[in-house]
Design goal:
about 450 residues; Immunoglobulin-like; about 0% helix; 2 domains; mainly beta; 9-stranded antiparallel beta sheet; 1 helix
């Protein structure tokens, strides 16, 4: 890095770039390099590739072909592909994590609806092949392969699942990284079945009556059991709910969260099992024969591509904690997983004015969430938006890489409210009440 410190890295791929067709020109190769970067918040850092030198490598995170371990967790994969997670800080043990559930779906794009004769298939009992996929100094990954044999679709009357079966191969990648308290999971699935729903499940054993899920500008607590079903409902109360980045359950000072990238539906049972919907395959925009809704919710158009056939990839992470989600840094862990760093290779000698390491913006303390960093709608400045999803008022600050020329509080539509005193230079103090959203418009350059 810019201080001359070496970082953990490894060449993970190489391909021929040019052959020896001119005299004196040797074969040239392009290499794919992976390394562990320590980055400033919302910032950049430059690393330089140097000639090979001998460096002491830390112990591998791969214990054996079925076990990973870092400072925080130990993961042991079983013969059916589920795994045991051991929290080394608390001693908590979570078994049977990561099984798959497949159910028939006679619904439409608006609502899930089980067929009259439902048949649920799980991955319990599957024979999984487990092998080491990555063994880097900073990261270990296990690869789990198995096949689910699923009904091809629904019967002609849509009241049951078909007797014909199709194979749907599934690959699960389970990763631990050095210094990071998180279990990363990637699922790759070849969907060859119609009219079904696929979910991944994590039986936490934390019995509870409520679950916590990130929502729009808030973390909401929802009851596990739906509202009492009375006569006259157009749409029956659902047991599934929307989420943004995470869903969590808590019991007696212990917590378990499932973080996701782009998976908006979850369900939690009273026993503390968290289900996350990976895929729903249906063939109609709207139907009027659902068991979970009366009549149409939209036009009755066929939508064959909504069967979601083909290859898919889903990404999740697990995070365990003590206390409440507010106290345990769950928001920060979820944001870190949602927005991974991006690597860019610089061509030739760069002579820009920025330093080799720079954090553009820093938000403190934990509990405040950055929801927007964008060019203003009028093109004359930058907009920063933060909110407070906790139950308490938070006093904090936003620090910028340089003092702004001008700053003002605005509404959500970016219309001005009040000028901000910039006597603190590059730091703007702020007090954000529980559930409050704060928007700042800034100007750093005269060009705006």
């Amino acid at each position: 890095d810019s201080l001359g410190e070496s970082v953990l890295g490894k060449v993970i791929g190489k391909r021929l770039f040019s052959e020896d067709i001119l005299k004196g020109v040797k074969h040239r190769y392009k290499a794919l390099l992976a390394f562990q970067a320590d980055l400033p918040p919302l910032g950049v850092k430059m690393y330089t590739l140097m000639p090979k030198t001998e460096t002491k490598q830390p112990c591998s995170l791969v214990i054996n072909s079925r076990t990973l371990e870092n400072e925080f967790y130990r993961v042991e994969v079983g013969y059916d592909g589920t795994f045991t997670l051991i929290d080394k800080e608390s001693g908590e043990v979570f078994r049977g994590l990561g099984f798959f559930e497949d159910s028939g779906d006679a619904g439409d794009e608006y609502n899930y609806s089980p067929p009259v004769e439902q048949k649920i298939i799980t991955s319990h009992g599957c024979k999984a092949e487990v092998q080491v996929a990555e063994d880097f100094p900073w990261k270990g990954t296990l690869k789990v392969d198995f096949v689910l044999s699923l009904p091809k679709g629904l019967s002609e009357d849509r009241k049951a699942r078909s007797s014909e079966l199709v194979n749907c191969p599934i690959t699960v990648f389970i990763s631990l990284q050095r210094g990071i308290k998180r279990v990363d999971i990637a699922v790759e699935m070849e969907n060859n079945a119609y009219d079904h729903r696929v979910r991944i499940a994590f039986p936490t054993g934390l019995k509870t009556t409520h679950a916590f899920a990130e929502d729009t500008f808030w973390v909401i607590s929802r009851p596990i059991s739906p509202a009492i079903e009375e006569e006259g409902w157009i749409e029956a109360p659902a047991t599934t709910h929307p989420q943004k980045v995470f869903v969590a359950v808590e019991n007696e000072g212990r917590g378990f969260a499932v973080i996701n990238r782009g998976l908006p539906e979850y369900e939690v049972t009273e026993e503390g099992t968290i289900f996350v919907t990976l895929l729903r395959g249906v063939g109609w925009l709207s139907r009027n024969d659902l068991r979970t809704r009366k009549g149409h919710a939209g036009p009755p158009y066929p939508v064959p591509e909504a069967q979601c056939l083909g290859r898919h990839r889903f990404e999740l992470a697990l995070y365990t904690y003590q206390g409440t989600w507010e106290e345990a840094g769950l928001l920060e862990a979820a944001q870190a997983f949602r927005a991974p760093p991006i690597g860019v290779q610089l061509e030739g000698e760069e002579k820009g004015s920025l330093p080799s390491e720079l954090g553009f913006l820093s938000l403190q303390p934990e509990g405040l969430v950055l929801s927007a960093l964008k060019v203003a709608e009028d093109g004359r400045g930058i907009v920063v938006r933060v909110y407070n999803p906790t139950s308490r008022t938070i006093s904090g600050r936003i620090s910028f890489w340089r003092p702004p020329l001008e700053a003002e509080w605005t509404r959500l539509d970016e219309s001005p409210l009040e000028k901000i005193n910039l006597s603190s230079g590059a730091i703007i103090p702020l007090v954000v009440k529980s559930g409050e959203i704060k928007t700042i418009k800034l100007r750093f350059f005269e060009v705006f």
